Amino acid sequence: MAQVSVVTGGNKGIGYAICRGLAKQVGGCVILTARSEERGQAAVAALQAEGCETVFEQLDITDADSIKGFKERVYKKYGGIDILCNNAGIAYKNASTDPLLEKATVTCETNLVGTRNVTNMLLPMIKPGGRICHVSSMAGIINYSFPDVNNPYRLRLLSDDLTEEQVMKVMREYFVAVENDDYTYFKKDSAYSFSKVLLTALTRVQGRMIEKDPRGILINCCCPGYVDTDMTSHKGPLTVDEGAKTPLMVCQLPPDCVTQGEFFREEKHFNWEGNCYY
After folding, report:
1. What residues form DSSP beta bridges with 134?
2. Residues 31-90: pLDDT tens digits?
3. Which site from 30, 49, 203, 210 is most exposed, i.e. has the minimal number of CB atoms within 10 Å?
4. Tens digit of each residue's pLDDT (9 = 90 or more) over 129-166
5. How far is it, in rounded angstroms, from Cα 151 to Cα 237?
6. Beta-bridge mates of residue 218
């Protein structure tokens, strides 16, 4: 049976390149999702013009009803999923003057909570040998947000007993700190990097929770690099196809791979402190 891949936020940038890469490298059916039906359909039309087998499904990862509807449609049409690449995310521009609490909540609700909700909803549909990739960032390594090795939040997030609820609790405590203008333990105006640190932490938790699942599913996260996209105001030196290389690798980790809940960049395996394993 042909493989089924899902890419969130696939209408442009790295997500678009991941869809193209999966269509060419894996084949089967690639489901490109986006909030905007118009933009999603246009992206699918462009990919199909290149000979890439893709279809569009509307999905807003911040909307629980949208996620539920997406799951029901995909299950009815395909019965399951082989690859889930959680690429959708947002970042405010450095020049943004929006309130810090707004930036913190909107960014975390998308990059962390939305990704968690999509994964938890679709996990029962992942087929044996399935792969889940969360697109994180170099800002998602623990040393970026918490360089002080004695920071209590660093220690909490590094705990081997960390749970999903504890990750969410740290997020809520961050919101309170921002609201109170208290940056004793957190960097000021760091919504994007903090959301990605928590996403990396969530990946570790999810990997630990799934490691005994008989389906042999792997959940990992990665940094695509500094890519020329709208999110970086086109300052990144990498093309979107270069940025897609590591996510595509994580989406296709071989059957004998046991890397679970880990972080990759530059197509290599790194630890959460940013040190390369090999």
Report:
1. 86, 221
2. 999 999 999 999 999 999 999 999 999 999 999 999 999 999 999 999 999 999 999 999
3. 49
4. 999 999 999 888 999 889 999 999 999 999 999 999 99
5. 33
6. 131
Report the chain's mean pLDDT, rounded to a whole number.
95
Strand blocks (E) in the chain: 4-7, 29-34, 54-58, 81-86, 126-135, 218-223, 263-265, 268-270
Cα separation, 126 vs 128, whole angstroms: 7
* Domain positions in the chain: 4-270
Question: For the chain, what's the residue count?
Answer: 278
Half-sphere exposure of 49 (CA within 13 A, CB side): 6
CB-based contacts of 168: which residues, under 8 Å, 6+ apart? 113
Q: Is residue 274's pLDDT more than 80? A: no
If you average pLDDT over residues 219-235, what whole number do you get?
89
Average pLDDT over residues 172-200: 97
Output the pTM of the full model: 0.96
Q: Looking at the domain 4-270, which fold is it? A: Rossmann fold (3.40.50)
Which residues in 61-188 belong to E strands, given as ranges? Answer: 81-86, 126-135
Q: What is the DSSP string of 158-191?
A: H-TT--HHHHHHHHHHHHHHHHTT--SSS-TT-H
What's the CA gap between 254 and 184, in Å, rounded?
Answer: 43
HSE-up of residue 147 (Cα within 13 Å, Cβ side)? 3
3-class DSSP assignment, residue 269? strand
* Whole-angstrom distance, CA of residue 93 vs CA of residue 103: 10
Cβ(26)–Cβ(249) under 8 Å? no
Q: Which of 16, 144, 153, 192 is catalytic?
A: 192
Question: Does the active-site annotation cover 278?
Answer: no
